[in-house]
Design a protein that fits this description.
- The complex is a heterodimer of chains A (349) and B (284).
- Chain A has two domains: 2-229, Rossmann fold (3-Layer(aba) Sandwich); 235-348, Beta Barrel (OB fold (Dihydrolipoamide Acetyltransferase, E2P)), CATH 2.40.50.
- Helix content of chain A is 26%, strand content 38%.
- Chain A contains nine helices and 20 strands.
- Chain A has helices at 39-47, 89-99, 104-117, 133-146, 163-178, 191-197, 215-220, 225-230, 321-326, and strands at residues 2-11, 14-23, 28-32, 54-59, 62-63, 74-77, 151-155, 183-188, 200-205, 208-214, 235-245, 248-253, 256-260, 269-274, 279-281, 288-301, 304-310, 314-320, 334-340, 345-348.
- In chain A, strand 11 and strand 12 form a beta hairpin.
- Chain B is mainly α.
- Chain B has a domain at 76-235: MetI-like fold.
- Helices cover 79% and strands 0% of the residues of chain B.
- Chain B has helices spanning 8-21, 23-51, 54-61, 64-97, 102-116, 119-130, 137-142, 151-176, 179-187, 192-203, 205-220, 224-229, 236-246, 249-273.
- In chain B, helix 3 (54-61) crosses helix 14 (249-273).
- The longest helix of chain B has 34 residues, at 64-97.
- The radius of gyration of chain B is 23 Å and the shape is globular.
- Classes of the chains: A alpha+beta (349), B mainly alpha (284).
- The interface between A and B is medium-sized, with 36 and 23 residues.
Amino acid sequence: MIELDHVSLTLGSFLLDDVSLTINRGDYYFIVGPSGAGKTVILEAIAGLHRPDQGRILLRGEEVTSLPPEKRGVGLVYQDFSLFPHMSVIDNIGYGLRVQGMGGSDARREVAGLLDEFGIAHLANRYPGTLSGGEKQRVALARAVAVKPDILLLDEPLSALDPVTQERFIHDLQRLNREDGLTIVQVTHSRREVRLLATRMAVIIDGCLMEEGDAGVVLNAPRSREVASFVGIENILDGVVVKRAGGHAVVDIGGLVLEAVTDAPAGEAVTLCIRSDDIAPGTPGDLGNSVAGVVVRVVENGPIAEVRVDCGVELIAAMTRRAARDLCLAPGIPVTLSIEAAAIHVIRE
Amino acid sequence: MDIKAGGPSSDKGQWRRLWYTDRCMLWFCIMGAAIVGITVLALANIALTELADPVHLLEIAASSEVIGSILLTFGAGANAVLILVLFGTPLAYVLARSRPSRLKGLVESIVDVPLILPHTVAGLLVYLLFMRRGWLGAPLSEIGLAFEDAYPGTVVAMLFVASPFFINTMREGFEKVPIHLENVARTLGAGTFTTFRTVTLPLSLRHMFNGAIFAWGRAIGEFAAVIMIAYYPFIISTLIYYSFATEGIRTSRSIAFVVIVVSLGVFYILRRLTRYLGRYDDRA
């Protein structure tokens, strides 16, 4: 559906370096990475707004590297929604239809349908300057899909919205992706959005594609320390395999010894990634690690409590606030942590 | 009493707060008033003198020579601005949207050349180029377009000195239109020119108008550059100078006062007509 084949692109001092990725029809694809990593540049390159210095861009199997944006059939929604301030809502939504030559009753019927579909019929004659963030966003989405693109590019569309509006918008996006079969490529900083929506994803750091693939795999089993850090794995520990035991590797992390599932031989340096919600207080099962430590700090964040435990190295465990209170976890309290060996993801150097 | 935000009562409160709390702003206002004061004093001076002799003033204002000269000046200025709008707008857009480069810097410097030149030098440049033996003047006079002591000469001199005012203002306007708007328009199916015509230009209309006003004001006020190539027909500046040199201060002062009144009137009407340009808030 969308293919970037060794695309390199220079914009001032920024370099997008040899990026190759494939987005399949119907994917809800996320491009994530820190600010300035080049996520939006990729999106705009797909839209035809930047021409690569090297490499090829293919849409629907056809090379479109030199094709202007108006010929590519992709919709684009920016974070700031970019509504035309001099046009009413109805004119914004109908803009694409008008410039593509659809006029009169057909265009009016299309726009009326979209106004109803997105629940913004009451805003038809309003101007963008008077709309709320959520309203602007629905108008922007309606305008983008009005010309019936089969690819929708979204540049951090949720970041400027309040939580309630975000939920409603996520519902709209899921509908467009699942019911209307729209291929969606979304740029975001938010791990929550990725977990909620992504089928596949790419991680971009400093203009380089670090990893691409199934969202579950990238989020839970990243191939590099940078990606692990970016996707929010709380415990990233460097260690060395000291021996192998029963198909497991025994890894020494600065005095803390953990068993993990990996083929790494003894003597190999590895990085262990453990999500905080895979570390729990209590006694482990047969395949688990039992680690004794002392609580250093407990931070409550809504219904979740993040407990930092000094086990020789500091581990972060996440549990419900209720569980943390029931266990009377507080700084200075000794605690035993259980970590399933299979829950430890091993990155081999 | 119903006190609305921004109404007279809140204005009064605002000034009171300014008086008591912001001495810095107060001093800034006093210093600024010195500049404004010079203009006000100059206008008051001429107005009081002229209004003391309304018969003479009306006689001058009604003379065909003055009316013809004002119409010629305003018309030539408008003509120059029209040419600037047609040719300067695309240039301003290119300058606004192109990436920094040596070529861009060079073009920007060339655009600004009329700003830094003495007006007589600007006039001489125009004369040398458009005189009957000039690089452009010679071929154009062969097809019947003469510039020396002719209306086209007045227009081209005005065009030359006014061009940076329009182009730079227009460029600023284009730069203020977010590129994202153009990007979205392109993905919706609009080509570059359609995007320019339907999105960028409408959103820059206020700057286009302001640039045209600045350029027109500059054009109708030009003297030195115009007389170098077109002493005749008399534009208003030339007429005032001619009257001053041949008839003395009284007549030239009356003509000047008429010009001031007409110019202020025209500018006021234009501002009123376009006050809502660039405002897109339907709550107002």
